[in-house]
Every structure is written in C-alpha cells, then in structure tokens.
C-alpha cells in the first residue's frame, strides 16, 4: 500500500558560452549600478566619497570605497547609514554599504508597515496564546511511552488506507510549506520595519513573528509525524 510522491524536474536549455559571458557582464554592471553607499552626513568619510550614481529608477545613491570603511568606527558607519537613508528617494533601491544591505525598504513602505502596528495589537495579537495554553503535535498522535503505542499506530495506519491520493498530496504540500517557516522568519528579519534585532525584541512585529513562526512550526511537526506513521508516502523522497 506504499505510495510514492512524484517529483518533477524542470530543465532549462543550456546557454551558449557567449550568452553566459554577456549575462555575467550584465549582472556585474547591474550590481555596480545598484551598490549605493555613502552620504554627506558622514563627515569623517567626506574625502573618500565618490560621485553620485543614478540607478535605473532615477533614485540617487552614493558609492563609498570599501577600504574607506575598513577603518571606520561603529558610530561612523551608523552616521553614514542614517545620512544615506535620509537622502533616499521614495522609490530608491535597497541601500548597500560594502555589499551589505543596510536598509531594505523605502521610506514610504516603511511608514506603511509601521502604521499597521495598532492593527496588529488590536486585531491579531488576540490570536496569540501563552506557551502553556498552546496545543502540541503529541496531543494528537499516539503516545510512544504508552503500552498501547503499537496498536494505536496500527489503527492510525488502517484509517489512512481510505484516504485518496489527492488528500495525501495536499497534506504533503502543507507539511513542506510549514517546514519552510525558518525561511519566512529570516525574510521578515531583513526588512527594516519588521526585523527582530536581538531575537527577543519587544516590538509589535518582532513578537508576532516569533509566535507566528512557533505556531506554524507545530503544524509542520504534526503533519510530518502523521504522514510518517501512516506509511502512505515515501518520506525519504519528500525530504530529498
């Protein structure tokens, strides 16, 4: 009764060597154009600032020599970042300093996210529960410490025999989505208005991100263990 999850492979036509070279040149040119990173506000870097660059969106950015930042103090770098962001146009690209993203949002978009904080507290926080009141995957699965663990697993496997393959496909898709939660959290922590600087920030978005991730992770745990015990899918194939 073992069912194997199907996998799909998308292949692309191989590019010619000349096409690859052109693509690499274009990529380097794009990175050079978008690498903005200095401003008049950082006085200690005035001698090292190069001329303004104009990116395709028309927003101004500035480029600082990497070696000019190697001897910089933390205060110098922070002053530089503040000055760059204060000059950025509403449609500016992410601000980069020495290849590192310093700001990932425009002023306009950051204000939109910050304006949602009251909504988050009033309408969303009520769905977050204290840890001691949260359900856990083990609440819905056979207890491995119980004497009847093996018979209960057998009962679970017998019940899943009647599940159509379409249902199993949906469950696998849900499980994979839930297990990708660390990726979503990492993404949110790269955005200016939502990032959790310390991993325990007492901010609206920091608190919600942590608790939402924990909630969704429990969904993934339950689905993974259920599918594993059911014997209806090839877990190795799914994991690969």
Automatic annotation (TrEMBL):
PANTHER family according to UniProt: ACYL- ACYL-CARRIER-PROTEIN DESATURASE-RELATED, STEAROYL-[ACYL-CARRIER-PROTEIN] 9-DESATURASE 7, CHLOROPLASTIC
Annotated GO MF terms: metal ion binding; stearoyl-[ACP] desaturase activity
Protein's organism: Chloropicon roscoffensis
Signal peptide location: none
Subunit comment: Homodimer.
Cofactors that this protein relies on: Fe(2+)
InterPro entries: Fatty_acid_desaturase-2 (IPR005067), Ferritin-like_SF (IPR009078), RNR-like (IPR012348)
Protein family per UniProt: Belongs to the fatty acid desaturase type 2 family.
Region feature Disordered, mapped onto this chain: 1-27
Protein name in UniProt: Uncharacterized protein
Pfam families registered for this protein in UniProt: FA_desaturase_2
Gene3D superfamilies reported in the protein's UniProt record: Ribonucleotide Reductase, subunit A (1.10.620.20)
Source organism, top-level taxon: Eukaryota
């Amino acid at each position: 009764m073992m069912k194997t999850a199907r996998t799909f492979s998308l292949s692309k036509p191989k590019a010619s060597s000349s096409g690859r070279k052109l693509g690499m040149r274009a990529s380097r040119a794009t990175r050079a154009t978008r690498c903005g990173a200095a401003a008049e506000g950082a006085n200690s870097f005035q001698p090292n600032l190069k001329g303004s660059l104009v990116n395709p969106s028309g927003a101004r950015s500035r480029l600082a020599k990497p070696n000019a930042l190697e001897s910089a103090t933390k205060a110098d770098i922070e002053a530089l970042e503040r000055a760059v962001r204060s000059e950025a146009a509403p449609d500016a690209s992410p601000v980069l300093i020495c290849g590192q993203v310093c700001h990932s949002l425009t002023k306009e978009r950051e204000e939109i996210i910050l304006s949602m904080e009251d909504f988050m507290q009033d309408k969303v926080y009520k769905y977050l529960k204290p840890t001691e009141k949260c359900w856990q995957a083990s609440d819905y699965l056979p207890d491995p410490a119980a004497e009847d663990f093996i018979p209960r697993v057998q009962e679970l496997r017998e019940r899943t025999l009647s599940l159509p393959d379409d249902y199993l496909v949906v469950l696998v898709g849900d499980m994979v989505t839930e297990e990708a939660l660390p990726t979503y959290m990492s993404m949110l922590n790269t955005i200016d208005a939502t990032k959790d600087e310390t991993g325990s920030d007492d901010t609206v978005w920091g608190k919600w991100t942590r608790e939402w991730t924990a909630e969704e992770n429990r969904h993934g745990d339950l689905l993974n263990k259920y599918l594993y015990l059911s014997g209806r899918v090839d877990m190795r194939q799914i994991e690969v």
